[in-house]
Amino acid sequence: MKTPLFAIGGPSVCEGDYLGDDGLLRCGKCGGPKQVRVSFAGRLIEPVCLCRCEKEALAAEESRLKKSQRDRRLLSSPAATLSINYDRNATFNLGTDVSRAESLVRTFARAWPQMAAEGHGLALIGPVGTGKTYAAAALANAVCAQGSSVLFTSVPRVEAALWDAKGRSRVSLLESLALFDLLIIDDLGCERATDYMDEQAFVVVDERYRSGKPLVTTTNIPLRELKNPDALSRLRIYDRVLERCQPIIFDGDSWRPRIAEQRRARLLAAFDEVERKD
Question: What's the pTM value of the predicted model, to 2 decimals?
Answer without folding.
Answer: 0.74
